Amino acid sequence: MKKKHLVTMVKPSLCRECATSCCTVGNQVCSK
Amino acid sequence: MWGSAPFFITWGEECMICPPGYDFAAHIHTYQWKDLNICLDVNSGAIHLLDEIGLHLVEVLAQNQGDEQAALSVCSRAYPEAEALEALDDIRQAVLEEALFSNPQDIRFDYSSLGVKALCLNVAHLCNMKCRYCFASQGDFGRGKALMPFEVGRQAIDFLLEQSGPVRRLEVDFFGGEPLLNIKVVKQLVDYGEQAASERGKQIHFTLTTNGLLLDDDINRFILDKQLSVVLSMDGRPETHDFNRPLSDGSGSYSRVLPRFKDLVGLKPVSYYIRGTFARHTLDFASDYRHLADLGFDSISLEPAVGTGKEFALQESDLPEVLAEYERLVDLILEYRRAGRDVSFFHFNLNLQQGPCLAKRMTGCGAGVEYLAVTPEGDLYPCHQLVGEEGFYMGNVANSPLDQEIRRKLAGSHMANKAECMRCWARNFCGGGCHANNYLSQGTLLQPNPVTCAMHRKRVEAGIYLELRRANSSSGN
After folding, report:
1. Which of B73, B146, B260, B455 would be B125's cystine partner, CB 3.0–4.6 Å?
2. Residues of B with CB below 8 A from A16's CB?
3. B353 CB near a chain A CB, below 8 Å?
């Protein structure tokens, strides 16, 4: 059994309706 | 700019895992936090957990500009070659899935063409407290005491509706000073805003930032009925809070505001944050988080004092202590989780799966373009921290249009125009930093504040670690 050395925990995840951050834009949620 | 396809190319014996000139420091971030080896692929947002060999190989690949043979040769000196080859297989698979060593995307759009989405209404340029670190000069922003008349607020809301273009979800924050000193106008403006927005097929989400002294049953009912989000100013332990946030007569305010905040939070408003400030003399803010959590609050934000005053705003020499405190805070959060409580810390909250699009991330807070602050007289500034700042007056709500030169200056200060930000792995989480903080600390909108950057990077690392720990525990690991 081949050993896994890298496990992808978050797959690639990358209108102005989402919230105005104010700054930490990374904690906003896409309104779509 | 490169296309988005994964890159493998063989020249003779050399096999490269990414294009020549790939900027590893800007596009890949690896770090260890406690028991986890973590790798962030900046351009795709993918996050990987690595074992010791995997981490070593990714780092050696970066050191060797993506040259697989050179990296394997180095890695095989430290680990069995068969395992190094296995790790390389895993890495290549991630590259094929565009989840590792991915290329930047070229996002171009006319940022200055966007409409206004959010207003900060300074409904009171006066305050019933004398907080030591206040960037608003104890409430009046150095401009003299004033309350916003309803007519000015109405013009501001009309301005927002007219300038918002196709955007439907708008935001208004009541700020100051202490906005509850002008509660009658706040109530009138919420009623007016609801009606006026509805007539245009739009919605305004209202928020209120308050020191809590004037909260009572009537105001609480209003907050609940109108679904206002509230930001409640409280710094933590009694001695911290009372030192930082004295009343006008110099006495402490902790015992006055705590029961009021408990009453309001107990009524379950649509959203709340207990929002504290830590400064140079109170760098042990993890203890304040613990105090607030033990009081029963589960939505906490503790943030560094800002401004140019060296007495309170954090300096480079404070960083080792602050960064260590963030690590202590992570341990505390996990301690509460183990006890069955999820006590959120605003700056560690990252949405890793469903965050905003890159166009939004590149423009950060939107100050001066999508977000504006309004004084009691109706004067417009790029944001609440630049109110009264020379060179940033943008007009008045009574007679738009806005000063387009300042608007263009702020629009041009997006992340892609900040060379330092484009080389930073955390750029898609911070959005280029706070314009006001950059300007007031560095004298230019285009240069981020290195002290703020160091704190932000640490918070992103902590936020990712906490999300991975949550994912691990929910999958039974």
Report:
1. B146
2. 114-115, 117, 167, 360, 370
3. yes
- Is residue B400 over pLDDT 70? no
How near does any CA of chain B get to the CA of A1, in Å?
11
Q: How many other CB atoms are there within 10 angstroms of residue B448's CB atom? A: 24
Contact B411, B395 (CB under 8 A): no
- All residues of chain A having their beta carbon less than 8 Å from the beta carbon of residue B351 are 26-29
- Looking at residue B305, what DSSP letter applies? -
Give the distance from CA B338 to its chain's centroid: 27
Query: Closest partner residue to B167 among A12, A14, A16, by Cβ?
Result: A16
Average pLDDT, chain B: 91
pLDDT of amino acid B394:
96
Q: Is the pLDDT of residue B307 over 80?
A: no
In contact, B380 and B397? CB cutoff 8 Å: yes
Q: How far apart are CA B150 and CA B409, in angstroms?
A: 31
- pLDDT for B12 equals 46
The closest CB to that of B86, out of A3, A9, A13, belongs to A3
- To the nearest whole Å, the CA of B274 is away from the closest chain A CA by 16
Res B324: pLDDT: 98
- Is it true that the peptide bond before B448 is cis, omega within 30 degrees of 0? no
